[in-house]
Recover the amino acids of this structure.
């Protein structure tokens, strides 16, 4: 079957090193030339696609599609809307290998749209006669709907869709109740509980937590109540700051000295050539925790606890809880703008994305009110 690889520090383009660019191989371990050309175009040329995580998302979409092509003996440049529809229906009937839950319609649509971009590019480049996607224009009225559809790109009044994508009604973020959080966290060890707490207490994404550097923790500047930690690996590669509570930082430093230190020492004993990773969180074999592994770890714990959720729900929980706290503070500090403050804490490029959490508060204000004190008092004990 097809295989997805990623470039290392040995890969260079125009004299600069470019890591983590997806490379797709077919069942015979040969480069899938059209797919690799498009992925390199996204990573090296297209100015709007600068994040390695975005490259990975597109690479994984092509990887899954090429596996389907090979399993059905379809030719990539001869497929029609019929084959794409069959692929869509197959995804809708399957469960994710990471979460064991059915694929969300948004995930199915995201993969189809990635394929739509790929085939349209191939048509422009003359690699196919025409794209198998039939494009239609989805016109959206009202600023709020546009912002939700485009995830923070106000002013965009239409976008290209496809008749193959499925209807997907926008849903509000779903914060986790305290009792369910505690049930899931009871399934976690020291390292994994710390990872969860970093997301709950700062709103960090799993890719940001996985990339967090040891030197960042050691050099973090502390005040009487909070610590400022600078993140360099973020969505869109825009550096931002988060503010973990001091008890969380102390527990993380203790993990680095003890559990992490033991794993590194054992790895050096096994292999004298072992080089210690710079990232904070390591596996038992002392290799870096990847974003995918972080998400899988939480999904396994949630499944054992009988709770249907995902790691990203922790970020939603932080955002909802923090917005409620900021709104309380604004009653006594009129110059404080809760939404702008939350936007900075979340690292959102557009405030319309942050504003979604106002609707979450509006739908279940009493539940959020009850959860604020419980959540933070439970995690800071």
């Amino acid at each position: 079957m097809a295989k997805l690889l990623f470039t290392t520090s040995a890969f260079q383009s125009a004299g600069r090193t470019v890591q983590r660019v997806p490379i797709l191989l077919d069942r015979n371990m040969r480069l899938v030339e059209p797919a690799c050309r498009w992925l390199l175009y996204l990573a090296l040329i297209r100015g709007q696609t600068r994040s390695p995580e975005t490259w990975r998302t597109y690479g994984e979409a092509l990887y899954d599609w090429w596996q389907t092509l090979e399993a059905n003996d379809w030719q990539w440049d001869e497929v029609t809307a019929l084959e794409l529809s069959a692929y869509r229906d197959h995804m809708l009937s399957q469960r994710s290998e990471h979460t064991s839950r059915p694929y969300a319609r948004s995930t199915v649509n995201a993969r189809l749209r990635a394929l739509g971009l790929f085939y349209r590019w191939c048509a422009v480049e003359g690699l196919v006669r025409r794209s198998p996607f039939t494009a239609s224009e989805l016109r959206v009225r009202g600023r709020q709907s546009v912002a939700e559809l485009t995830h923070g790109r106000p002013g965009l009044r239409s976008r290209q869709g496809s008749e193959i994508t499925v209807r997907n009604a926008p849903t509000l973020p779903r914060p986790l109740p305290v009792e369910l959080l505690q049930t899931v966290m009871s399934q976690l060890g020291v390292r994994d509980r710390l990872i969860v707490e970093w997301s709950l207490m700062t709103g960090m994404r799993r890719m940001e937590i996985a990339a967090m550097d040891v030197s960042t923790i050691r050099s973090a500047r502390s005040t009487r109540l909070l610590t400022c930690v600078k993140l360099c690996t973020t969505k869109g590669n825009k550096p931002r700051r988060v503010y973990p509570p001091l008890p969380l930082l102390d527990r993380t430093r203790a993990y680095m000295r003890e559990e992490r230190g033991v794993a590194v020492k054992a790895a050096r004993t096994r292999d004298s050539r072992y080089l210690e990773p710079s990232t904070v969180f390591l596996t038992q074999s002392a290799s870096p925790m990847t974003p995918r592994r972080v998400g899988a770890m939480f999904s396994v714990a949630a499944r054992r606890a009988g709770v249907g959720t995902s790691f990203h729900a922790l970020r939603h929980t932080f955002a909802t809880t923090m917005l409620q706290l900021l709104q309380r503070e604004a009653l006594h500090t009129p110059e404080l703008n809760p939404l702008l403050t939350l936007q900075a804490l979340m690292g959102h490029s557009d405030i319309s994305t942050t504003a979604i959490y106002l609707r979450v508060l509006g739908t279940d204000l009493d539940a959020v009110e009850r959860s604020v004190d419980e959540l933070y008092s439970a995690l800071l004990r």
